[in-house]
Structure formats: C-alpha cells, structure tokens
C-alpha cells in the first residue's frame, strides 16, 4: 500500500515520545563512549564537556557532577529563550550522558594506546551521538544556545562565539595537560565539528 500524500503546506511529522526516548538514549550512549575514549587517553574536547573534563583533571572531582553543574546555567537560559520541550529533553540527555560516563568504567574497559587515534574515535562517536540528540530536539552543548541568542541579539556570529569558548577551554587545558594531549584533543574536536557540519542539515532532515 502506498503512503498517503502529504498535505500541501503541512509541517514535518514530529517524533513520537518513544522515538525521542530511544534517540536521546542512543545519542547519550554514543557521546558517553566517545568521552570515555578521550578521558582514558587523557584528552579533552570543546564546549561544556571540555570545561568539565579540564576541571576534573585539575580538581580530581568526577566528570559527571562537574558536567551537570556547568550545564545547568545554560539550560536555565535555554528554558528562557528556547522553551520547555528542548530544555527537558536536553536535561534528560545530560543526566543520561553524565550517569553513563560515571557508571561505565567498572563494566567497560577503554584503553587506547595512541592519543591521536583515541581523539579521532572519540570525535566520531561524539559527533554521531550529538547528531542523534539534535534530530530528537535535544542537546548537550548549552554554549550553542547562548551563541545563537547572541547572534540574533547583536549580530555577532554564533560560530565565533563557540570558537572563542573552545579556544578558552583549550588554553586552560594547556595548564593541566601536556601539549601533545592538547594537540590530539584539537584533532578530536575538529573531527566532531566536521561530522556535525556536514551532516546536521535542517534542509535535509527537519523532523523533530
């Protein structure tokens, strides 16, 4: 039986709650696995996850609690500017991601022997995970919400805001990590951003 024709002017179909739940769980799991590759190789990444990793290396506090603490102000901002649906989905993704990173080590051994390979794998996994989250109306990176708002409010490009934050994260990383680890981390961040830049196209995939 052929599918019914779409009504002219009808918007894209929304994902069902079950589809959103599995998509967010899948995305959070991939991001957590990617971060485990980075953490076990002594690497970092950009945005809020990078802030939490660098703070974890410097303080010895677990990544999960730090990531949640850093993320909460961004999602308070998201609730104000974007709405409750995105904010609740994103909070669920953050909670799942943080819990998986903290709970996984006793059950899953990740022991990369090459920092640059670990960075590449971590970037690919996290990029795929973020794509899944984006396509189900969620996110892990609250910096992006602020960046888009700042662009709308002042004209300052969102990409420049995110690059500025990433530059600050990697500069801070140099204080607590060897420069080769920071260089490998930059490779991972570049791969992650390439995955998102090539594949996150609203003109090709618009269902939320």
From TrEMBL:
Coiled coil: none
Membrane topology: Multi-pass membrane protein
UniProt keyword Nucleotidyltransferase, yes or no: no
Membrane-spanning parts: 21-38, 50-78, 90-108, 115-134, 167-196
InterPro entries recorded: UPF0750_membrane, YitT
Gene Ontology cellular-component terms listed: plasma membrane
Protein keywords: Cell membrane, Membrane, Transmembrane, Transmembrane helix
Subcellular location field: Cell membrane
UniProt superkingdom: Bacteria
Primary location recorded for the protein, binned into one broad class: membrane
Matches recorded under PANTHER family: UPF0750 MEMBRANE PROTEIN YITT, UPF0750 MEMBRANE PROTEIN YITT-RELATED
Protein name: Uncharacterized 5xTM membrane BCR, YitT family COG1284
Gene source species: Rubrimonas cliftonensis
């Amino acid at each position: 039986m052929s599918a019914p024709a779409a009504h002219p002017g009808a918007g894209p179909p929304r994902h069902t709650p079950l589809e959103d739940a599995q998509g967010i769980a899948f995305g959070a799991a991939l991001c957590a696995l990617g971060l485990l590759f980075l953490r076990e190789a002594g690497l970092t990444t950009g945005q809020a996850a990078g802030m939490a990793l660098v703070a974890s290396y410097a303080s010895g506090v677990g990544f999960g609690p730090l990531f949640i603490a850093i993320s909460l102000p961004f999602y308070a901002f998201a609730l104000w500017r974007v709405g409750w649906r995105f904010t609740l989905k994103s909070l669920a993704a953050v909670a799942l991601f943080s819990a998986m990173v903290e709970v996984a080590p006793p059950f899953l051994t990740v022991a990369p022997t090459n920092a640059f390979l670990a960075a590449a794998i971590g970037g690919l996994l996290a990029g795929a995970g973020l794509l899944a989250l984006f396509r189900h109306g969620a996110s892990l990176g609250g910096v992006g919400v602020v960046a888009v708002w700042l662009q709308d409010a002042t004209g300052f490009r969102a990409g420049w805001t995110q690059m500025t934050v990433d530059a600050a994260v990697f500069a801070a990383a140099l204080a607590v990590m060897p420069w080769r680890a920071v260089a490998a981390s930059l490779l991972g961040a570049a791969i992650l951003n390439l995955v998102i830049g090539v594949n996150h196209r609203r003109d090709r995939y618009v269902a939320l």
